[in-house]
Design brief:
Length: 434
């Protein structure tokens, strides 16, 4: 007997071409797949193993965080108000060197708690000891695409990273009922020289997995790349042939008009991290121009040490407000576009071959229920505007991934939240102790 779930709500955001809203509506889910979505129907209720009635609520696709370093939650609030390179070299890299495998597991679970409680159903991670990250994802039920962070400037570490990536693909790619996939994660052109990137590309080809990389994050990175290679980071990786692969490129803040065309043409998925770029003083990515060229732009939080939260509702709002302010154009990034970047574009960036991230018949059931009966969401004129400009992460009431409920009435069902908070605090204090 398959698990059969009925979800009823006042509004269902279907997210087809016309951003259609069904009101009131219902969704039937059999195991992990949506088998009906539409107006309410007379049904024999005894056929269902679970009935979820969302009163004063909206069902929408889950949010997708396309760039983070989950276990960095352990360094949240540890080092702030510093430039990126100084922050990395003096503060982050020294404490990261002390991380043990179990720290990564608990730090990731802390991140997953936060993400689920904020309506994130799927995320892309780049870090170390990724077996532990995969274990946290498998146990918690969240969907994720994981990459071992590769640093190629140190040859021994670089080769070890490639070996670990290979075993990660072998052990975890398409595991956890298909919820977990693996990418290769060369950190950035400034930490991975061309010869090393070449090896990464060969491995991507062999194993048929995408590549997740930081690209053109700061003005300093671009200047350094020009000095060392006589090319910008985007031009360098393009000449190497890297953009011919399936690439998820984080940041892409400092781009020339030609590079914007190139990223669109090569169908590179851009993970835009407005909060992190602002906090680290890195600049603002040319999102309006990228979207004009039909580039695939999705949203991410980056790690909690540089954001300092993993709140995708906030990133969605920021992504719209920032571009409006910068361009002095209130029509830039309308609500539906911000919402699309936070949901559908993210799913397309991370799970391009799967029916994930849309609410329609045949799709995997990754959805969230937002509670609308709150003063800051009243009155209701336009649902999309309400979600992007007025809602907060705490309005997320229920989270379902792959047909399984991970949070109900804001209570996490697959994770012992108290234990995670305890372990997170204990381990974080040990790591930063002199
Ligand atoms: Zn990053």
């Amino acid at each position: 007997m398959p698990e059969k779930t009925l979800v009823q709500a006042d509004y269902i955001l279907t997210w087809n071409e016309n951003f259609e809203i069904i009101s009131p509506g219902e969704i039937v889910i059999e195991d992990s797949i949506i088998t009906y979505l539409g107006a309410r129907q007379e049904r024999p209720m005894e056929n269902f193993t679970r009935i979820i009635v969302g009163e004063d609520s909206l069902v929408m696709p889950g949010l997708v965080n396309t760039h983070t370093h989950a276990a960095m939650t352990l360094f949240r609030g540890y080092a702030d108000d510093m430039p990126l390179m100084e922050w990395l070299e003096k503060k982050i890299w020294p404490v990261e060197a002390r991380l043990r495998k179990e720290d990564i597991y608990w730090g990731t679970l802390l991140a997953v708690c936060e993400m689920i409680k904020g309506g994130t159903t799927c995320f892309a991670d780049m870090y170390f000891h990724m077996d532990e990250v995969a274990r946290a994802c498998q146990e918690s039920g969240i969907r994720a695409s994981l990459a071992q962070g590769l640093i190629g400037v140190d040859k021994i570490k670089g080769m070890a990273g490639l070996r670990e990536s290979k075993s990660l693909v072998h052990n975890w790619h398409k595991k956890g009922d298909g919820r977990i996939t693996i990418m290769l994660g060369p950190h950035a052109p400034y930490t991975c020289p061309p010869a090393y990137l070449q090896m990464v590309m060969e491995m991507a080809e062999q194993l048929s997995v995408p590549i997740h990389i930081h690209l053109a994050e700061t003005r300093g990175e671009v200047a350094e790349c020009l000095k060392v290679y006589g090319q910008t980071p985007v031009s360098l990786v393009n000449d190497l042939g890297l953009l011919e692969y399936n690439v998820l490129a984080a940041h892409c803040v400092h781009l020339t008009p030609g590079e914007i065309d190139l990223l669109a043409e090569k169908k590179v998925a851009v993970a835009h991290n407005p909060g992190s770029n602002l906090k680290l003083g890195s600049g603002v990515a040319p999102v309006i121009e990228l979207l004009k060229k039909n580039a695939l732009v999705a949203l991410g939080t980056d790690g909690a040490a540089s954001n300092n939260n993993l709140d995708m509702v906030e990133e969605m709002r920021l992504s719209a407000l920032l571009q409006k302010g910068l361009s002095e154009d209130a029509t830039a990034i309308p609500a539906h576009m911000a919402l699309k970047m936070a949901t559908l574009n993210g799913s397309e960036a991370l799970f391009p071959d799967e029916e994930v991230g849309t609410l329609r018949k045949g799709s995997k059931a990754d959805l969230i229920i937002m509670q609308l009966k709150n003063p800051h969401l009243f009155p209701l004129h336009n649902l999309l505007a309400q979600i992007v400009y007025s809602a907060g992460a705490a309005d997320v009431d229920l989270v379902m991934v792959n047909g399984r409920v991970l949070m109900e009435k804001r209570r996490l069902l697959t994770i012992d939240e108290e234990r995670v908070l305890f372990e997170g605090q204990k381990r974080a204090l040990r790591l930063v102790k002199d």
